[in-house]
Specification:
The structure is a homodimer of 159-residue chains.
Chain A (H helix, E strand, L loop, with lengths): L11 H6 L13 E7 L5 E7 L1 H10 L3 E4 L4 E4 L8 E8 L6 E7 L15 E2 L14 E2 L8 H5 L9
Parallel strand pairs in A: 1-6
Antiparallel strand pairs in A: 1-2, 3-4, 5-6, 7-8
Protein backbone atom coordinates (compact mmCIF):
# COMPACT_ATOMS: atom_id res chain seq x y z
CA UNK A 1 0.00 0.00 0.00
CA UNK A 2 1.34 3.41 -0.90
CA UNK A 3 0.42 6.88 0.26
CA UNK A 4 -2.08 8.79 -1.77
CA UNK A 5 0.03 11.55 -3.27
CA UNK A 6 -2.82 13.29 -5.03
CA UNK A 7 -4.51 16.53 -4.11
CA UNK A 8 -8.14 17.39 -4.73
CA UNK A 9 -8.81 19.51 -7.80
CA UNK A 10 -9.99 22.88 -6.55
CA UNK A 11 -9.46 25.49 -9.28
CA UNK A 12 -8.07 25.89 -12.79
CA UNK A 13 -5.28 28.06 -11.40
CA UNK A 14 -4.28 25.32 -8.96
CA UNK A 15 -4.35 22.63 -11.66
CA UNK A 16 -2.49 24.62 -14.33
CA UNK A 17 -0.16 26.96 -12.46
CA UNK A 18 0.60 25.47 -9.03
CA UNK A 19 2.95 22.78 -7.70
CA UNK A 20 0.03 20.57 -6.54
CA UNK A 21 -0.24 17.13 -8.12
CA UNK A 22 -4.00 16.89 -8.72
CA UNK A 23 -4.52 14.45 -11.59
CA UNK A 24 -7.84 13.93 -13.34
CA UNK A 25 -8.91 10.32 -13.79
CA UNK A 26 -11.58 9.75 -16.44
CA UNK A 27 -15.04 8.21 -16.03
CA UNK A 28 -13.36 4.77 -15.89
CA UNK A 29 -10.89 5.94 -13.23
CA UNK A 30 -7.99 6.02 -15.71
CA UNK A 31 -5.40 8.52 -16.91
CA UNK A 32 -3.55 8.07 -20.23
CA UNK A 33 0.22 7.63 -20.08
CA UNK A 34 2.76 8.33 -22.83
CA UNK A 35 6.03 6.41 -22.46
CA UNK A 36 9.18 7.51 -24.27
CA UNK A 37 12.77 6.28 -24.35
CA UNK A 38 14.74 8.75 -22.20
CA UNK A 39 17.71 8.66 -24.60
CA UNK A 40 16.19 8.69 -28.09
CA UNK A 41 12.90 10.43 -27.23
CA UNK A 42 11.07 7.76 -29.24
CA UNK A 43 7.51 7.05 -28.15
CA UNK A 44 7.52 3.44 -27.00
CA UNK A 45 3.90 2.90 -25.98
CA UNK A 46 0.74 4.51 -24.70
CA UNK A 47 -1.07 2.99 -21.74
CA UNK A 48 -3.30 3.84 -18.79
CA UNK A 49 -2.97 4.08 -15.02
CA UNK A 50 -5.57 4.13 -12.30
CA UNK A 51 -5.02 5.93 -8.99
CA UNK A 52 -3.21 2.95 -7.47
CA UNK A 53 -0.94 2.30 -10.49
CA UNK A 54 0.07 5.97 -10.64
CA UNK A 55 0.87 6.16 -6.91
CA UNK A 56 2.84 2.89 -7.06
CA UNK A 57 4.80 4.05 -10.13
CA UNK A 58 5.82 7.21 -8.25
CA UNK A 59 6.84 5.22 -5.18
CA UNK A 60 8.67 2.40 -7.00
CA UNK A 61 10.33 4.27 -9.87
CA UNK A 62 9.26 1.58 -12.35
CA UNK A 63 6.26 1.80 -14.69
CA UNK A 64 3.10 0.17 -13.38
CA UNK A 65 0.09 0.47 -15.66
CA UNK A 66 -3.53 -0.61 -15.42
CA UNK A 67 -4.33 -3.29 -17.97
CA UNK A 68 -7.76 -2.68 -19.43
CA UNK A 69 -7.87 -6.15 -21.00
CA UNK A 70 -6.88 -7.97 -17.80
CA UNK A 71 -8.58 -5.45 -15.49
CA UNK A 72 -5.65 -5.42 -13.06
CA UNK A 73 -2.40 -3.65 -12.23
CA UNK A 74 0.34 -4.43 -14.71
CA UNK A 75 3.95 -4.09 -13.60
CA UNK A 76 5.47 -3.75 -17.07
CA UNK A 77 8.25 -6.24 -17.66
CA UNK A 78 7.47 -8.59 -14.77
CA UNK A 79 6.68 -11.34 -17.28
CA UNK A 80 8.88 -10.40 -20.23
CA UNK A 81 11.82 -8.97 -18.27
CA UNK A 82 11.50 -5.64 -20.10
CA UNK A 83 11.17 -3.47 -16.96
CA UNK A 84 10.78 0.28 -17.55
CA UNK A 85 13.02 2.20 -15.14
CA UNK A 86 11.67 5.72 -14.63
CA UNK A 87 13.97 8.63 -15.46
CA UNK A 88 11.38 11.41 -15.32
CA UNK A 89 7.62 11.73 -14.78
CA UNK A 90 5.81 14.77 -16.19
CA UNK A 91 2.19 15.87 -16.04
CA UNK A 92 0.39 18.09 -18.52
CA UNK A 93 -1.32 21.46 -18.08
CA UNK A 94 -4.77 20.24 -17.05
CA UNK A 95 -3.27 17.15 -15.37
CA UNK A 96 -5.17 14.56 -17.39
CA UNK A 97 -2.13 12.95 -19.05
CA UNK A 98 1.20 11.56 -17.78
CA UNK A 99 4.51 11.41 -19.67
CA UNK A 100 7.08 8.85 -18.52
CA UNK A 101 10.68 8.99 -19.71
CA UNK A 102 12.09 5.50 -19.17
CA UNK A 103 15.04 3.23 -19.69
CA UNK A 104 13.84 -0.16 -20.93
CA UNK A 105 15.81 -3.09 -19.60
CA UNK A 106 16.21 -5.42 -22.60
CA UNK A 107 15.20 -2.78 -25.11
CA UNK A 108 11.68 -3.78 -26.13
CA UNK A 109 8.30 -2.33 -25.15
CA UNK A 110 5.91 -3.88 -27.63
CA UNK A 111 4.17 -7.21 -27.13
CA UNK A 112 4.42 -7.89 -30.88
CA UNK A 113 8.22 -7.97 -30.48
CA UNK A 114 9.29 -4.57 -31.76
CA UNK A 115 11.30 -1.96 -29.85
CA UNK A 116 8.42 0.53 -29.96
CA UNK A 117 4.70 -0.12 -30.40
CA UNK A 118 4.79 2.53 -33.14
CA UNK A 119 6.50 0.52 -35.90
CA UNK A 120 4.31 1.62 -38.83
CA UNK A 121 3.63 5.02 -40.33
CA UNK A 122 0.75 6.37 -42.41
CA UNK A 123 1.19 8.23 -45.70
CA UNK A 124 -0.48 11.66 -45.74
CA UNK A 125 -0.96 14.85 -47.74
CA UNK A 126 -2.85 16.40 -50.58
CA UNK A 127 -2.38 13.62 -53.12
CA UNK A 128 -3.51 10.91 -50.77
CA UNK A 129 -7.23 11.18 -51.59
CA UNK A 130 -7.42 8.75 -54.45
CA UNK A 131 -4.60 6.47 -53.54
CA UNK A 132 -4.76 3.65 -51.13
CA UNK A 133 -3.49 4.12 -47.61
CA UNK A 134 -0.80 1.49 -47.07
CA UNK A 135 1.09 1.42 -43.78
CA UNK A 136 4.87 1.36 -44.00
CA UNK A 137 6.97 -0.57 -41.48
CA UNK A 138 9.58 1.70 -39.87
CA UNK A 139 11.13 -1.09 -37.82
CA UNK A 140 12.55 -3.95 -39.85
CA UNK A 141 13.32 -6.54 -37.23
CA UNK A 142 11.73 -7.69 -34.02
CA UNK A 143 13.82 -7.45 -30.85
CA UNK A 144 12.37 -10.67 -29.47
CA UNK A 145 10.07 -13.52 -30.39
CA UNK A 146 6.77 -13.03 -28.54
CA UNK A 147 5.96 -16.76 -28.72
CA UNK A 148 9.07 -17.57 -26.71
CA UNK A 149 8.58 -14.79 -24.14
CA UNK A 150 4.84 -14.89 -23.58
CA UNK A 151 4.24 -18.57 -24.41
CA UNK A 152 0.50 -19.14 -24.09
CA UNK A 153 -0.48 -15.78 -22.58
CA UNK A 154 -3.51 -14.13 -24.17
CA UNK A 155 -2.76 -11.47 -26.76
CA UNK A 156 -3.91 -8.14 -25.24
CA UNK A 157 -5.05 -6.72 -28.60
CA UNK A 158 -8.83 -6.44 -28.86
CA UNK A 159 -10.66 -6.12 -32.17
CA UNK B 1 -15.55 15.84 -47.04
CA UNK B 2 -12.67 13.43 -47.18
CA UNK B 3 -12.45 9.78 -48.13
CA UNK B 4 -12.72 7.23 -45.39
CA UNK B 5 -9.25 5.79 -45.32
CA UNK B 6 -9.96 3.22 -42.66
CA UNK B 7 -10.36 -0.54 -43.06
CA UNK B 8 -12.60 -2.73 -40.96
CA UNK B 9 -10.85 -4.59 -38.14
CA UNK B 10 -10.93 -8.28 -39.08
CA UNK B 11 -8.21 -10.11 -37.17
CA UNK B 12 -5.39 -9.54 -34.72
CA UNK B 13 -2.90 -10.49 -37.45
CA UNK B 14 -4.35 -7.85 -39.78
CA UNK B 15 -4.31 -5.17 -37.06
CA UNK B 16 -0.80 -5.90 -35.74
CA UNK B 17 1.16 -7.25 -38.69
CA UNK B 18 -0.40 -5.96 -41.92
CA UNK B 19 -0.26 -2.70 -43.86
CA UNK B 20 -4.00 -2.03 -43.35
CA UNK B 21 -4.93 1.12 -41.49
CA UNK B 22 -7.73 -0.17 -39.24
CA UNK B 23 -7.86 2.14 -36.20
CA UNK B 24 -9.91 1.43 -33.10
CA UNK B 25 -12.06 4.27 -31.84
CA UNK B 26 -13.22 3.95 -28.22
CA UNK B 27 -16.79 3.88 -26.86
CA UNK B 28 -16.94 7.67 -27.39
CA UNK B 29 -15.69 7.36 -30.98
CA UNK B 30 -12.26 8.76 -30.11
CA UNK B 31 -8.64 7.68 -30.47
CA UNK B 32 -5.86 9.22 -28.30
CA UNK B 33 -3.14 11.17 -30.10
CA UNK B 34 0.40 11.89 -28.89
CA UNK B 35 2.01 14.92 -30.50
CA UNK B 36 5.79 15.43 -30.42
CA UNK B 37 8.15 18.06 -31.84
CA UNK B 38 9.76 16.42 -34.89
CA UNK B 39 13.16 17.98 -34.11
CA UNK B 40 13.53 17.70 -30.33
CA UNK B 41 11.28 14.67 -29.79
CA UNK B 42 9.63 16.53 -26.90
CA UNK B 43 6.02 15.57 -26.19
CA UNK B 44 4.00 18.73 -26.83
CA UNK B 45 0.47 17.59 -26.04
CA UNK B 46 -1.94 14.70 -25.93
CA UNK B 47 -5.33 15.00 -27.57
CA UNK B 48 -8.06 13.00 -29.26
CA UNK B 49 -9.40 12.51 -32.78
CA UNK B 50 -12.67 11.10 -34.01
CA UNK B 51 -12.98 9.36 -37.38
CA UNK B 52 -13.47 12.65 -39.24
CA UNK B 53 -10.59 14.49 -37.52
CA UNK B 54 -8.20 11.60 -38.22
CA UNK B 55 -9.17 11.39 -41.91
CA UNK B 56 -8.89 15.17 -42.33
CA UNK B 57 -5.49 15.26 -40.61
CA UNK B 58 -4.22 12.63 -43.06
CA UNK B 59 -5.63 14.52 -46.04
CA UNK B 60 -4.53 18.02 -44.95
CA UNK B 61 -1.14 17.33 -43.37
CA UNK B 62 -1.99 19.57 -40.40
CA UNK B 63 -3.21 18.38 -37.00
CA UNK B 64 -6.98 18.40 -36.56
CA UNK B 65 -8.21 17.11 -33.21
CA UNK B 66 -11.62 16.56 -31.68
CA UNK B 67 -12.22 18.92 -28.78
CA UNK B 68 -14.03 17.09 -25.99
CA UNK B 69 -14.83 20.36 -24.18
CA UNK B 70 -16.25 22.08 -27.29
CA UNK B 71 -17.59 18.85 -28.83
CA UNK B 72 -16.35 19.77 -32.30
CA UNK B 73 -13.43 19.44 -34.71
CA UNK B 74 -10.46 21.54 -33.65
CA UNK B 75 -7.97 22.62 -36.31
CA UNK B 76 -5.08 23.30 -33.95
CA UNK B 77 -3.64 26.80 -34.42
CA UNK B 78 -6.55 28.29 -36.39
CA UNK B 79 -7.18 30.70 -33.51
CA UNK B 80 -3.71 31.07 -31.99
CA UNK B 81 -1.69 30.80 -35.22
CA UNK B 82 0.27 27.85 -33.80
CA UNK B 83 -0.50 25.42 -36.65
CA UNK B 84 1.00 21.93 -36.34
CA UNK B 85 2.50 20.86 -39.70
CA UNK B 86 2.66 17.08 -39.90
CA UNK B 87 6.05 15.49 -40.51
CA UNK B 88 5.10 11.88 -39.76
CA UNK B 89 2.03 9.97 -38.57
CA UNK B 90 2.50 6.63 -36.82
CA UNK B 91 0.03 4.12 -35.42
CA UNK B 92 0.64 1.62 -32.64
CA UNK B 93 0.51 -2.18 -32.62
CA UNK B 94 -3.21 -2.62 -31.84
CA UNK B 95 -4.06 0.62 -33.68
CA UNK B 96 -5.73 2.39 -30.78
CA UNK B 97 -3.25 5.27 -30.52
CA UNK B 98 -1.77 7.77 -33.00
CA UNK B 99 1.63 9.47 -32.79
CA UNK B 100 2.07 12.74 -34.72
CA UNK B 101 5.51 14.25 -35.30
CA UNK B 102 4.94 17.92 -36.06
CA UNK B 103 6.57 21.26 -36.68
CA UNK B 104 4.77 23.94 -34.68
CA UNK B 105 4.50 27.27 -36.44
CA UNK B 106 5.22 29.86 -33.73
CA UNK B 107 6.66 27.33 -31.31
CA UNK B 108 3.91 26.89 -28.71
CA UNK B 109 1.41 24.08 -28.21
CA UNK B 110 0.00 24.75 -24.76
CA UNK B 111 -3.01 26.98 -24.07
CA UNK B 112 -1.39 28.08 -20.80
CA UNK B 113 1.40 29.70 -22.85
CA UNK B 114 4.23 27.20 -22.56
CA UNK B 115 6.04 25.48 -25.43
CA UNK B 116 4.85 22.05 -24.30
CA UNK B 117 1.85 21.13 -22.15
CA UNK B 118 4.25 19.07 -20.04
CA UNK B 119 6.02 21.87 -18.17
CA UNK B 120 6.07 20.27 -14.69
CA UNK B 121 7.63 17.07 -13.41
CA UNK B 122 6.85 14.85 -10.43
CA UNK B 123 9.45 13.70 -7.88
CA UNK B 124 9.58 9.91 -7.45
CA UNK B 125 11.45 7.03 -5.83
CA UNK B 126 11.90 5.13 -2.61
CA UNK B 127 12.26 8.10 -0.27
CA UNK B 128 9.16 9.83 -1.57
CA UNK B 129 6.68 8.11 0.78
CA UNK B 130 6.82 10.50 3.69
CA UNK B 131 7.69 13.67 1.85
CA UNK B 132 5.28 15.90 0.07
CA UNK B 133 4.92 15.67 -3.66
CA UNK B 134 5.69 19.12 -5.05
CA UNK B 135 5.67 19.61 -8.81
CA UNK B 136 8.73 21.26 -10.33
CA UNK B 137 8.43 23.62 -13.31
CA UNK B 138 10.72 22.49 -16.14
CA UNK B 139 9.86 25.46 -18.38
CA UNK B 140 10.72 28.83 -16.91
CA UNK B 141 9.06 31.22 -19.32
CA UNK B 142 5.88 31.28 -21.33
CA UNK B 143 6.20 31.58 -25.11
CA UNK B 144 3.10 33.75 -25.35
CA UNK B 145 0.50 35.48 -23.19
CA UNK B 146 -2.74 33.47 -23.39
CA UNK B 147 -4.83 36.52 -22.47
CA UNK B 148 -3.62 38.33 -25.58
CA UNK B 149 -4.01 35.35 -27.92
CA UNK B 150 -7.27 33.82 -26.73
CA UNK B 151 -8.90 36.97 -25.32
CA UNK B 152 -12.23 35.92 -23.84
CA UNK B 153 -12.28 32.33 -25.09
CA UNK B 154 -13.27 29.73 -22.50
CA UNK B 155 -10.39 27.90 -20.83
CA UNK B 156 -10.62 24.25 -22.00
CA UNK B 157 -9.41 22.84 -18.66
CA UNK B 158 -12.16 21.03 -16.75
CA UNK B 159 -11.99 20.32 -13.03
Amino acid sequence: MVDNFFKKRKSIKQVEESTDLAPKFDENGLIPVITTDFRSGEVLMQGYMNNDAFAKTIALGEAIYYSRSRKSLWHKGKKSGFIQKIKEILIDDDQDCVWLKVEVIGGASCHVGYRSCFYRNIPFGKNIYKSKIILKFTEKEKVFDPKKIYKNALNPTKL
